[in-house]
Amino acid sequence: MRDDIRAWLDAESGLPDQPLRGEFYVDAGIFAAEMRDVLGRQWLYADHVSRIPRPGDYFLFEVGGESIIVVRRKDGTIGAYFNVCRHRGSRICLDRQGSLSSFVCPYHAWTYDLDGALRGAAHMPDDFERRDAGLMPCHVRELEGLIFLCLAEGEAPDFDALAEIARPYLALNGLAPARLAARRSYPTSANWKLVVDNFQECYHCAPAHKLYSSAHSKDKLLAFGAGPGSGPVDAAERFSGELATWRERASAAGTWLDARAEEEDDIRSIWSVGRLPIKAGALTESVDGAPVSRLMGRFAEFDGGHSAVAFNVFSYFLASNDHVVMIRFTPRGVLETDVEFQWFVHPEAEEDVDYEVERLVRVWDVTTTEDKRITEDNQAGVASSRYRPGRFSALEGRLSTIKRWYLHEMATASVPSHEELG
Ligand code: FES
Ligand code: FE
User: Fold this and answer.
1) Which stretches make up the Rieske domain (predicted)?
2) pTM of the predicted protein model
């Protein structure tokens, strides 16, 4: 790592109550280090299994400069491989999705099976070992229909502990067999850390998100805007009556689940799970609180609750009783972040009978369009010669935690380990 980056990281660790200095949002060297040390150690949500139902179906997951082929193999399992030919390194799959019986490199036609093994390579010397030239695998795991990838070279971080904490939330909505009703992209010309910070605080909700703010309890947004226990205590006290009433109702319906988040001293991960009421009188997260589709999963009646799972800062599950929103933030370049939303409904819900797409997507489509604009304006400002980091508000406590985590990941991963030093 460059010495100036190392010095900036050291200086930032003494400044927990303010955003990062400008270089962190514009510097290509920092982005390269993040790709390896931060992104490379996450389990990133890639897509739902329904995207590749049949053997040979594949899609590309692109993060930073990497392209990963995610494919349904002949035996029905899901594989993931770096989209890099083992001959001279060409991209192999060029279309973002498709269906194939084998992967054929467009350059010199090396051919790989769906399990990544090299099957054909013409005119190679006699001593060439095909078995050593299979596609490079990427770590892949499935959880209740969700496909997660980890680009780590060597061993991937643990997946199972958080998977078991998140599973009841996903299963409550019957996510595995759910049907994709809509998918929308909001590519944002901003550094990924601005996109993440914006999503993790609700200080901006009142000034910037009129519709979102009207769909949710005001005190809840103040107290829990960025996850369980993230906001000021007085708002939490005001919200406690609303919460107690709802908790009783959800407990009676068997749909109450405890909120949890990473431990205070566990700075290796950022995650949270929780269910909270939407707002008094609202059955679902919609423009008017009225249902937008039919009940999903284990819900026998509307309980007015809203589930949220943050798997990390890049991958999120939000769910009402009648629909699920999956969100992923994928860094593509230092000033470019893919923001993708997917809306899932009951597998038998019919479009224009049980749901209308525009009504289903309305709250988050409006909110994310607003977020794209404010985040791009934020990027323009932090790139200025006169940007000086301000101070986090009482509603942005989560951003201090995220900053601590980020600095920890960057600092620890780039220092050679004792094993590496021998
Ligand atoms: Fe793929 Fe040559 S680079 S076959
Ligand atoms: Fe926002």
Assistant:
1) 44-149
2) 0.95
